[in-house]
Amino acid sequence: MTLVAVGFLLVVAYRQTLADEPSRSQARAGLVAQIEQRQTETDRLTREADRLRDEVARQRDAALTDKDAARLRDMEAATGLARVRGDGVEVRVDDAPDAVDAVTGAGKADLGRVLDRDLQDIANALWSAGAEAIAINDQRLTATSTIRAAGSAILVDFRPVTRPYVVRAIGPDDLKKDFESSGTARLFRALVDDEGMSFDVREVDDITLPAASEPQLRFATPSPSAATPTPSKSEGD
């Protein structure tokens, strides 16, 4: 009798799940459409910001001496606030084919999935190999950049990046050789053999990395209402 009751409850739960599936699918489709719309708007605003940044740079260079303008451009390139162009390396990494559930589309918790810390490791290995500028899916990295996870998504400076993940770096001629000899590259080659993850490194010529968005720097200042502590007197005073 108990088995019959349990079987009945499972059938009822299964039928209820099937009945709720269309509404869940519709809600998910609506959220996906909103995300795509917001992403399109964000990309448009980013292009407009780049255009205005270039205009500001032209006006600024016209007001400065050639020496000061060149020095400022070099500083912007070094800090990620200006586009840079040169030869370098492209690292392309992607999930293993079975790292995503074929039914739900949700990611599986296994070693075949690319995680935020994987992109962190690749970026750090490229920096160590001598990279002068790095971008992940065209998101330029700076000293204040963050690479983190939000659920199953990976965010670079709070902007989502999607697979396949492409890390481009500009640097010296031996950048590829030094990166491929790093522990990070060896680890990913092992994941390719053991888990089926995709990992490819190649040299690229004449690539352009975009400028990063303006950083939002925050700093603290003493409160004007804070009282200055009065030093206590010693017993001998």
Automatic annotation (TrEMBL):
Residues 220-237 have a biased composition (Low complexity). Keywords: Coiled coil. InterPro entries: DUF881 (IPR010273). This is Uncharacterized protein. Residues 35-62 form a coiled coil. Pfam families: DUF881. It comes from the Bacteria.
